Amino acid sequence: MTVVPSRLIVPVSTGLVAAVTCEESAALVTLSTTIPLTKEATSRYADLKEMRVHYHDAGEGPVLLMLHGGGPGASGWSNFKQNLPVLTSHFRVLLMDQPGFGLTDKPDRR
Q1: What number of CA atoms fall less than 13 Å from residue 20's CA on the CB side?
Q2: What is the spatial distance between Cα 7 and Cα 25, in angstroms, rounded to a whole number?
Q3: What are the residue ranges spanned by the domains of the chain?
Q4: DSSP string spanning 3-66?
Q5: Is the Cβ–Cβ distance between 52 and 107 less than 8 Å?
Q6: pLDDT 10s digits, 85-104
Q7: Would the pLDDT of 32 be above 50?
Q8: Is the pTM of this model over 0.90?
Q9: Contacts of 34 (CB under 8 A, 6+ apart)
Q10: Contacts of 26 (CB under 8 A, 6+ apart)
């Protein structure tokens, strides 16, 4: 008799769904408690010629850049923070605040 491990369905805000085994889920809980996935611990800035860009940086592996949509209160953190525990186990996740949103400078209108 073959036993197939149970899978948990983890929704992500982009409408995609990730399936992880119960064992992977337990590992993710451990990961999230050993690496602080907080707003403060992941906050970074890139100083560009025209503006200062804010982003959150967490995890290791291939880079996954996540871009938020528009609207009041939109930012990388507000849109994707709930996805970090799953995604950071596979990727280096960058949550960028686009120009004019979150803590990124507003572009000059010349």
Answers
A1: 17
A2: 9
A3: 7-96
A4: -PPPEEEEE-TTS-EEEEEHHHHHHHHHHHHHS---HHHHEEEEE-SS-EEEEEEE--SSEEEE
A5: no
A6: 999 999 999 999 999 999 99
A7: no
A8: no
A9: none
A10: none
